[in-house]
Amino acid sequence: EQWYETDIGNELETLLEPLENADITDQLEIYIYTLEQVNQIEGGYETDDLVAPLDGIYAKMGTLLGDSGLSLEQKRKYLDSLIDIYFDLDWSDSELGDAIIEACSSPEDFSYVIGKLRDCEDDFDAKAELLAKLYLQSGQEDAYLEIRRQNLNSDLDYLELAEFYQSRGQIREAIEIAENGLNGLAHKAALYPFLEEQYETGGDVQNLQRILIAQFKEFPSLELYQRLKRVSESAGTWEAALKRELLAPLEQSGGYGSELLLAEIYVADGDYDKALAFSRRSGISVEALSHIAEGISQAYPEEAIAIYKRLINSYLAVNGRDRYRAAAQLAAGMKQ
């Protein structure tokens, strides 16, 4: 009652902290009561300020139920409560799903929860996701493979299935699954590191290079560029044409992130003439210019000083303490 009349987002976690030393059954009962009260307010379980503390309650309930040694009959109403909330949510709450899985500590627990999910007539992605994880956790591999193969909706789904085959030594199948996801999905960030590891471990330099190129084009970074360059140089396939292919989209985009990355790459490659030419571009970001000035300072000190002066003058042209502080920092860099 005290919590219900207060600022719910700030008070819920604090009010539940003393429960940790209470009897397991008492803790579970109070958690259930709290969840029932949450469901009475506008927004219910999806109230923005309550998502994080509710995830904490789910996790604590899952741990308590999994470690308690309670029988299925004793757990049933708590499991029912968690499952009902899972059905009520319009989105998949991974913390809640993980709590339901952790609450299952026996074949009977898994069988009961799986049955409850299967009996639900609504067909939604979150239901399939939880069922797949329950089958996998309970060792029902055939059932897992059937439902997972029918519900490959994201890069994480493909990755989970690929890792399943990998864990059983079926590397060819694992790579095939990950490649299928790479070719069929718009968002595939989770699959690049997996395929990179498989091809590197297998010594497949050609496919490793292909994956690194695709990854760089989608998520360009200095680290990826340098890794791709090392792999290609060791295979004798690093050429000027490949470098142009990688950098052309960055040079054409002109965005803040692209400018800074280009500056980092030019300096890292020791391509100082290119860096200098790039520094003369109109409207180039302060961060990119600063990186170029610092990077070329040993090879081209006069040009670096000119860039520093340009930056300092741009700061001093605008009043403000922060601007003067930044100008002083640049002056210190120029002095060095």
H/E order of the elements? Answer: HHHHHHHHHHHHHHHHHHH
Query: How many beta-strand segments?
Result: 0
Instruction: Please count the helical segments.
Output: 19
Q: Which outline best applies?
A: elongated
Structural class, from secondary structure content? mainly alpha
Helices and strands in order, then pairings?
Layout lengths: L7 H9 L7 H15 L12 H17 L4 H17 L5 H10 L3 H13 L5 H13 L3 H10 L4 H13 L3 H14 L6 H11 L3 H14 L3 H14 L4 H14 L2 H13 L3 H8 L6 H11 L4 H16 L4 H15 L1
Helix pairs in contact: 2-3, 3-5, 4-5, 4-6, 6-7, 7-8, 9-10, 10-11, 11-12, 12-13, 14-15, 15-16, 15-17, 16-17, 17-18, 18-19
Word description of this protein:
- The chain is built from 19 helices and no strands.
- The termini are far apart.
- With 336 residues, it is mostly helical.
- The protein has helices at residues 8-16, 24-38, 51-67, 72-88, 94-103, 107-119, 125-137, 141-150, 155-167, 171-184, 191-201, 205-218, 222-235, 240-253, 256-268, 272-279, 286-296, 301-316, 321-335.
Question: How would you concisely characterize the structure shown here?
Answer:
The chain is an all-alpha fold. Helix content is 74%, strand content 0%.
Key traits:
elongated; mainly alpha; 336 residues; 19 helices
